[in-house]
Design goal:
266 residues; mainly alpha; 9 helices; 0% strand
């Protein structure tokens, strides 16, 4: 039994300690760059760009890439499990998800019939939504699943859903520290459960980011400044395009350097 302890300690550090440390740092950055200054409630282009580059792109998207690379090498996760699939499958998943989200927006648009406002709010929150998916599910979710994999697929999925849903719910207090109440937290956890089930079922990072973005608009609509909603804000659009472009770049990089082969069953 003794040789197992170093292996368990190493797995604990790689699959739990490091991912949760990155999540904690990301949460702190959101609080400092957005929540503490009420960024979404006030029109502040320089601060928004700083928040996007540091919290969303650097820590939220690029840093998880290095952990995922290490997980690939160790065999803990593979390309399919983190949600980067073939172009055809990605297009199909995003198209179907987009149709469902559009129907939801028609009936639940918090801005009434103003779909332009919804689109602007979606673009505003999209970098954060992508970062949430990368941190909560691609990084922490898949690593937690790998840690409890010996318990079976049902246990790993249930643990992955519940842990990541709570982590996603905790982001509410980083974004809106003044709303430290139970209702916003449970609403975010519920959305986290929806996104977690969707991610672990579909395993597509793009469509999960779409779901997270739409759900974020539905829950944060009353905390977004009208200046973001009713104007074509160029830096918001650029930030959204940049976040998506970096995500696509990561996809291309991983696809070219890490190949997941399906072994046929006899």
């Amino acid at each position: 039994m003794a040789p197992q302890f170093p292996e368990l300690r190493s797995a604990t550090i790689r699959l739990l300690v490091i991912p949760f440390a990155i999540y904690t740092a990301w949460l702190l950055e959101i609080f400092l760059l957005e929540g503490s200054v009420h960024l979404f409630e006030h029109f502040d282009p320089p601060q928004f760009l700083l928040y996007t580059f540091i919290a969303c792109i650097l820590t939220g998207i690029l840093v998880p890439l290095f952990c995922v690379r290490t997980a690939f090498i160790s065999g803990a996760v593979n390309l399919f499990q983190i949600g980067f699939r073939s172009l055809r499958r990605t297009v199909v998943a995003c198209t179907l998800t987009g149709i469902i989200c559009y129907i939801v927006v028609i009936f639940l648009n918090p801005f009434g019939t103003d779909r332009f406002a919804f689109a602007n709010a979606f673009l505003l929150l999209l970098p954060g939504a992508i970062a949430s998916v990368m941190i909560c599910w691609v990084l922490v979710g898949t690593h937690v699943q790998a840690f409890v994999r010996r318990g079976g697929i049902v246990i790993s999925i249930l643990v992955g859903i519940m842990v990541t849903a709570v982590l996603f719910g905790m982001t509410t207090f980083a974004y809106f520290p003044a709303a430290f109440r139970q209702d916003p937290f449970f609403s975010s956890v519920f959305i986290g459960i929806i996104a977690a089930v969707f991610f672990f079922a579909v395993r597509d990072i793009y469509s999960t980011s779409l779901v997270a973005g739409v759900c974020s608009v539905l829950t944060m609509a009353n905390r977004i400044s009208p200046l973001y909603l009713h104007n074509a804000v160029v830096f918001v659009w650029i930030s959204a395009v940049l976040a998506v472009s970096i995500l696509i770049g990561i996809h291309l990089y991983l696809s070219r350097n890490y190949v997941t082969l399906k072994v046929p069953r006899n």
